[in-house]
Amino acid sequence: MKNSNKLASMPTIKRLPSYLHVIEAAEKEGKEYISGTVIADELELEPIQVRKDLAVTGIVGKPRIGFPVRDLINAINQFLRWDREHQAVVVGAGHLGTALIGYEELAHRGVRIRAAFDLDQQKVGKTVNGVPVYSLGQLSDKIQELNIDIAILSVPTSHAQAVADMIVKAGIRAIWNFTTVKLKVPSNVVVQKEDMSSGYAMLSVKMKHAFGEHD
Amino acid sequence: MKNSNKLASMPTIKRLPSYLHVIEAAEKEGKEYISGTVIADELELEPIQVRKDLAVTGIVGKPRIGFPVRDLINAINQFLRWDREHQAVVVGAGHLGTALIGYEELAHRGVRIRAAFDLDQQKVGKTVNGVPVYSLGQLSDKIQELNIDIAILSVPTSHAQAVADMIVKAGIRAIWNFTTVKLKVPSNVVVQKEDMSSGYAMLSVKMKHAFGEHD
User: Fold this and answer.
1) To which CATH superfamily is domain A86-197 assigned?
2) Which terminus of chain A is less hemmed in, N or C, by CB atoms within 10 Å?
3) Chain B closest CA to A142's CA: distance in Å?
4) How many CB atoms lie within 10 A of CB B144?
5) How far is A66 from A100, CA to CA, in rounded Å?
6) Closest CA of chain A from B37, distance in Å
7) Does B159 touch chain A (CB under 8 A)?
């Protein structure tokens, strides 16, 4: 697949989890079918957008009936590879790392956080939300031992690149980056960078539209 | 502006902060102009996408020279209303709330977090990263007193709607929702919901593309 194709569907991919929420809620209510319009209304999107996004799953809706709920859930999970578990570690067990360890939605989506790592010797040997905290020196050993796929990076900015280098050296090929640093990694390592300021940009523009120019 | 127009530019709005990062870095290096291609390379986007996104600012690039750096920074900040400060409170001073209070990027973008609120009486009366923590009962008074625009909601799921109701009652019209609950609010209140699972969806698809179907 060409790079440009992947980029074109980024907003679609980002919306799939919210579709999954709505469709799972419909299933809990005992519904067998859900229409694109119902999903669109729930999420305040345009129906055409929803149908276009859901086309990536290969599931086709029936006119007047909608999409089969169970098939659509399975297809989204398969598309996102959320039909399997990923073993993860959290590197940086500060407030953000601790919050991520406790974030139930991730466990629900198959992310198994098996260990945390921190520089602070006062944290090492303890547990955070049931997850053991090790020293950074044990990173490589634990990653091998626990067969880890994903490192969630939540260290202070000043340590981000150095710790990312350690993570890559330990054999991890997927980093979920919660620091503000744009990491330099080899081309065979994938990085997803979270940026809180994107959300703040959205909030700001919504405020501008709702409250007017002179608010 | 029609609702569909606003929705059409959501991915654009979400990308603007990353453009701002790159353009500010160029200014720090003493550059007066930056080309769309340079921005695109830095962020691994298509140049056409960057030029389309930046068109919302009204700044026009010169052929072979690019965009004037200072004008572009000003125009993005103006578009996002980041040329003014917003007074904010954090409601829920747990690990996530504490992490958000310490997130420097928000301060840099004009978010002034003036107070935090928590149910836990052990936290009340103390400070978190220099921000005073009050009891939830003081919410309404403090919001009036400090002239607050934005409430950042980071309470446990089970309290999310009840606390959001208190926030709205106190006169806040913008909620940045870090809980997993889809809040019900009056139509004159704007909500921006952060969903970590969108980022995990992106990471999952990147892993699928990079490591293949059978990884």
Assistant:
1) NAD(P)-binding Rossmann-like Domain (3.40.50.720)
2) N
3) 20
4) 11
5) 35
6) 15
7) no
pTM value is 0.88
Q: Does domain A3-79 have CATH number 1.10.287.130?
A: no
Length of chain B (residues): 215
What are the pLDDT tens digits along chain B (215 aa)?
A: 333 334 437 889 999 999 999 999 999 999 999 999 999 999 888 999 999 999 999 998 898 899 999 999 999 999 999 999 999 999 999 999 999 999 988 999 999 999 999 999 999 999 999 999 999 999 999 999 999 999 999 999 999 999 999 999 999 999 999 998 989 999 999 999 998 899 999 999 999 999 875 54
Question: CA B161, CA B184: separation in Å to the nearest integer?
Answer: 7
What are the boundaries of each domain within chain B?
3-79, 86-197
Whole-complex ipTM:
0.92
Query: Long-range pairs for B8-11 at CB < 8 Å and ≥24 separation?
Result: B9/B56, B10/A11, B10/A202, B11/A10, B11/A11
Residue A94 with chain B: CB contacts under 8 Å: 99
Exposed, middle or buried by CB within 10 Å (0-12, 13-18, 19+), for A181?
middle
